[in-house]
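Build the 3D complex.
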Amino acid sequence: MIDLTDLRFAWQKEDIINIKTLNIQKGQHLFIEGPSGSGKSTLLNLLGGVLTPQSGNISILGQSLNQLSSSQKDTFRADHIGFIFQQFNLIPYLNVLDNIILPCAFSAPRKARVLQRAASLKAEALRLLTALGLNQTELLQRNVNELSVGQQQRVAVARAMLGSPEIIIADEPTSALDSEHRQAFIKILFDECQKENITLIFVSHDSSLKQLFSHSLDLRKINQIKYKEVL
Amino acid sequence: MAILLLAFKSLLNRKLTVFITLFSIAISVTLLLGVQTLKTETNNSFMKSISGTDLIIGSRGASSQLLLSSVFHIGNTSNTIQYKTYQELAKSPAVKWAVPISMGDSHHGYTVLATDLNFFTHFSYANKQHLKVQSGKIDDDMFAVVIGAEVAKKLHYHIGDKVIVTHGDGKIEGHHHDNIPFYVSAILAPSFTAIDQTLIISLEAMEAMHADHHGHIGALPGEKTLPVNNKKHMHKIASKDADHEYEAHSSHEHHAQHDDHEHDHEAHSNHEHHEHDHEAHSSHEHHEHDHEAHSNHEHHEHDHDHEAHSNHEHHEHDHDHEAHSSHEHHDTQEQRIARLLKLKPDNINAIFVGLNSPQAILGMQNYVNNFQAEPLTAIIPAVALQELWQFFNIAEVALDIVTVFVVLVGLLGMLSIILMSLNERRREMAILRSVGARPMHIFALIIGEAGFICFIGILLGTLLLYLLQYVLQAPLASYYGFYLEINMLTLNDLFILLIIQISALLIALIPASLIYKYSLSDGMSIKF
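Done.
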């Protein structure tokens, strides 16, 4: 469902991405190992349609991103992909509920999907939080800065999963968590993606997490750019 | 819409900095609108200084000078015209009414205006409003003085109080016309014109003060002048004034008393000379007649006093009683003589003229400007006021420029606060991008924030303006004689506010386009 072919991207005349081919199946939980400087965040921006490759094609859910205008790509991303970042994933001036339902402000289809399965955005947000182990109703109105890092990351997962996008891309979501929380967090993420049949792309430099995934690949191997160690 | 809500919530999150920016914009808006209001209001009150008078006639000279001296009582009063010119012009068929005015004396810095009773029937200001009496009544008495509201208030004068007029504008120690004391017969209601700071007396009284009678006209045959008595009388008034706790006034009285004594003495020693002079002035028969009138008048005065005692109960009882016992309204020797002569002045400063029809204004103006017997100037008050106001134009423009810069500073403050927040907000922008926000949304977020700050700043500033006007209205009127009318915002004001709002949005283009560029290059990568 995600196909990359002959993908090349350069930034200021320096090649960053050169991937011959990459296929990701629907429902797959894929671990991409990539240390910093391996072109990891560039690849995620290409997948999200924020960056446009110089050549090659990205096809997601059968839609070639090359055929979309940049604003259509923004809409496509909002409709089909949920993102989770390393930390400080949340908008500081919005409360927990507003953070979770934020994608609905930019994607009508996602909002419609939420309202198909739940009475309101709030009910669905609460359901997701409960599923993620945060089952306090009062949490919804809390300021996100009052939450622990672990709680913040779970709120970020809830936001990514709201309205069941087909794909979730997680960029180092556990690096701010200690190892105990890390395992629990990944388990919850897996369970929820399984339930909703969501394709999960999990990017991290931490190769110890590789064993938890059914599929994994090393970005340094598929990206045919001479890897430079950047510290 | 969602973006505007986001912008609003983002602002709420930064309450302190936003509040400071908001406040600086609000204050600048208040200042700008305040200056506009003040400009309109000063212009209004300026234009309201006189109305219903078709022409003001004075000696040949600059129209602004004539306007300033006759309406605002500012500046030169040495340019005069002959009284007989007034009499001649008043007879002109086009003229409905003509009121002579004469100035040059003062009382504690307030202008003394000499005119006749027609002044009160014909002079009007603002929307053809006539002067209203607040207390007392306008007596047809030569030595009655009608005082403006502010004069009464600042000098604590009441009906019946004695007033002594000083020659000149009072800045230099002038001659006190203390041989001709006046009594306050009426206090005018505030008109918020120069009249509030004016004492109005009769032309004859002014002439009596100025014509140098002492040494030329003495006691009439058979009339007794008793300087000792007179001194006692003056003393009583002085002590009465001390009761009023007006020290300056009472010391002034002591001075007056001394002066009076001197004059009396002089009058006494030059007795022979007086007699001679007087005979030269009037025939014997005429004198007899006058004398009768004089005694009648005295009688009347006496009656009046009695009446005052019985009828005017609203006066403090004490006051009235004292006035009665000290014979307050009893004339001095000079006053008695002046009443006999009832001399009109030879010269006056200006004439207020009302015409039978407005169509006659230009013709009459032309006639006056080409008057044969004496060089004259006739001005149309409304036109002259407008011309004079043009002088203030430069000050107005300067004020406008200053306020525009103040608003600009307020907006620049907003710009710097938004710019400073940009770097720390690149993460926020990346998150927004990840959930599907377009760069245009990010752009709109910043513009929306600036728009909100400015809009609320404008609302707050306008509110502050009305609050200030409401609070300042009473003190302005009572301490500065400036009546501030609270009006709705004018179309001009709204236009200014619109320009401020648009400027805010334009200024926000700078940070908005910066963040637009950031969000294009950063994408979803969180760089900070």
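The CA atoms of residues 93 and 425 of chain B lie 83 Å apart.
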